[in-house]
Amino acid sequence: MIGIRGGAVAARRAARMAEIVAAAWELAHEDGIAGLTLHALARRLGIRQPSLYAYFESKDALYDAMFADGNRRLLERLDATELPPDPRRAVDTWLRVFVDFALDDTPRYQLLFLRPIPSFQPSAESYALAEAAMATLIDVLAAAGIDDPGDVDCLVAVVAGLVDAQISNDPGGTRWVRHLDRLVGLYLDDAARRSST
Amino acid sequence: MIGIRGGAVAARRAARMAEIVAAAWELAHEDGIAGLTLHALARRLGIRQPSLYAYFESKDALYDAMFADGNRRLLERLDATELPPDPRRAVDTWLRVFVDFALDDTPRYQLLFLRPIPSFQPSAESYALAEAAMATLIDVLAAAGIDDPGDVDCLVAVVAGLVDAQISNDPGGTRWVRHLDRLVGLYLDDAARRSST
DNA sequence: GTCTATATTTGGATAGAC
DNA sequence: GTCTATCCAAATATAGAC
Questions:
Q1: In chain A, which residues from 39 to 58 place their CB closer than 7 Å to nucleic acid strand D?
Q2: A179–B153 C-beta distance less than 8 A
Q3: Hey, is B174 helix, strand or coil?
């Protein structure tokens, strides 16, 4: 069976890598994304630190796998979301899914959307996943009549501002994000007003 | 003269500490706020690394001095600003001063308003300076009829969202902050509408 | 693929002389 | 207040046996 369609060993290896990434997220949750160390990760997995190098050639390669994993989860969640037919409500729904995703796991949000590890730059393959998620937002906004790049920028910045404030100043609460729909509605109304003239 | 009014030596010492802080900002500008090291700082000053401990008992104490220094600069700038009599324009002016301050020196902005050094928590004295700056914004907003804490939260989050996006994605440009006045105006109009009913 | 052992680097902090 | 000399700890990464 060995080597037939290259499957069995590769699958086992992929499964092990997924376990490692899952353990890395656990640690990131406890000590922050920047506090993750390979020693602690190996300890958690019951192996020795150098053994990790059989799977990831560097710590940044591990971060890259986490980055890709996080983006895949976001894409899955967006995929599993039934968007309402009304374009405006579709925007609200998309953004709500995104904010829930962000608040569900703040180290993940930080790795995907902030830049907490200066040495880490996502690979082209991983970055493509992030662009795919962004593309779904572009689509939903376009359907709601938002096609001006400046408007997209503003909406993204407003949502990020609320999420960042929420995470930094009131973790677990809703003090900032509860204004999401109102703020977005305000902006969309204004954009519609501007484009109708 | 020694000891008379406790002045001369204390002044020299304070001046030297200010030099150290200035050099620390230079390095933060080059290597990022988290990339600052005491060895590099001492090298820049032409002294040895342990000598810094004559002025700061720890690296975090140095960060605290930088945090206080940054907030003093912000307060100075706000103090030097002539706010227009019209309350709405006063808000615009205050925010414009703030955004200019933020974009003038991004490591400084990060140290004051983001939390780039997990181990660092500002001392009570330093934090009081940050609160004093925030208090001036509260005043200006109150004069413009914004007294609901939720509205203050929203405006702060929106401005932070624009500034963070600007710094992260288009440093040195204006792609995001050029929307500042429009977004703030939009929000203030809505707030006025809400409070008039 | 996992191990032991170790290299290497970095950087914060302390001791004690001057 | 500054120096030399160290210490200590953490953490990434590599070499080579099994």
A1: 39-40, 49-50, 53, 57-58
A2: yes
A3: coil
Looking across all nucleic acid strands, the nucleotide with the smallest C1' to CA distance from residue A51 is C2
CA of B101, closest CA in chain A: separation in Å? 18
Q: What is the per-residue pLDDT across A52-110, written as a single tens digit (0 to 9) for each?
A: 999 999 999 999 999 999 999 999 999 999 999 999 999 999 999 999 999 999 999 99
Which structure tokens are listed for A30?
């406890």
* Inter-chain Cβ pairs, chain A and chain B, closer than 8 A: 70
The pTM score is: 0.96
Average the pLDDT over each of A5-9, A177-181, B73-77, B103-107 and give the range with the smallest value.
Answer: A5-9
Residue A97 token pair: 């899914």
- Residues near A100 by beta carbon (within 8 Å), at least 6 away in sequence: none
Cα separations in angstroms, A74 against A27, A137, A156, B171: 20, 12, 16, 27
Burial of B75 (0-12, 13-18, 19+ CB in 10 A): middle
Structural domains of chain B, with CATH: 1-56 (1.10.10.60), 66-196 (1.10.357)
- Coil/strand/helix, residue B48: coil
**DSSP letter string over chain A?**
-TTGGG-HHHHHHHHHHHHHHHHHHHHHHHH-STT--HHHHHHHHTS-GGGGGGT-SSHHHHHHHHHHHHHHHHHHHHHT----SSHHHHHHHHHHHHHHHHHH-HHHHHHHHS---TT----HHHHHHHHHHHHHHHHHHHHTT---HHHHHHHHHHHHHHHHHHHHHSTTS-TTGGGHHHHHHHHHHHHHHHHH-
Contacts of A157 (CB under 8 A, 6+ apart): B158, B161, B162, B164, B165, B176, B179
Contact B191, B151 (CB under 8 A): yes
